[in-house]
TrEMBL record:
Residues 103-182 form the Transcriptional repressor PaaX-like central Cas2-like domain. InterPro entries: PaaX-like_central, PaaX-like_N, PaaX_C, PaaX_trns_reg, WH-like_DNA-bd_sf, WH_DNA-bd_sf. The lineage of its organism: Bacteria, Bacillati, Actinomycetota, Actinomycetes, Streptosporangiales. It comes from the Bacteria. This is PaaX family transcriptional regulator C-terminal domain-containing protein.
Amino acid sequence: MTLAVDDDQTAPSVRPQSLMFSFLGLYVLGRDVAVYSGSVIDVFARLGVSEEAVRSTLARMVKRNLLARHRRGRRVYFGLTPHAAEILADGRRRVWETGAVNRGWDGTWTLVGFSLPDSRRSTRHDLRSRLVWGGFGLLQSGLWIAPGERDVTGILASLELGDHVTVLTARAFKPTEAADLVSKAFDIEQIARRYRAFLAQWDVPRPLSSAPDDLARQLLLHTDWLQLVRQDPHLPTEHLPGDWPAIRAEQVFHTLAHEYYPRARRLADVVLRELAL
């Protein structure tokens, strides 16, 4: 597991909240239950996360409307809010449906163009951050692109951009080549380095042999992988190098995810205390 950020920012640090999202997506999403805080602390102890850090993370997620508290006697249980369920469902789709390899691109691009006055500099910064997170790359000043048709309503929501933004879908026509758009708008080597870092960690005979059990390895694997696919703009493989590391990385993830699941599930059933909602 990559636990520190290296100098080129290709290996994002793993925070307790990232691990918490993986845990909730695996063991709470889609079930009408809340989990006892003490049992969550027990699970995270396997990952070297302190009780204080777990309680702090749970409290912050309640404040952000991601978790809801449920009290039964002296025990406190935490369940998903609709907002959290929506975020986790999106993560599940990215992991198991969208994936890391885009072999079905239809040649279309989504374009977002905007021009904001200096008085709205903070809004401009927020919009750029949201576009990057949404898989867009900067093609030229004020013009961002992403492969395929993207619904950007969530990206633009709450920014009150009005007529300062234009959203279109388009195709490249000569002399513009799709491969040139990919190389201009996206840092291909940086994306590849992230996948190579994942492979260095997980594509080995005994990944994370120091972890106490497969429940710990499962949570760490899913957290690593979800961070990768959330940062991946899902570029078409036909315009990427033939040895694109995401192809092997996705195979490794699926193999390990299925290998860890049975023992991790049994351990979780023993450790977790739940409240039916």
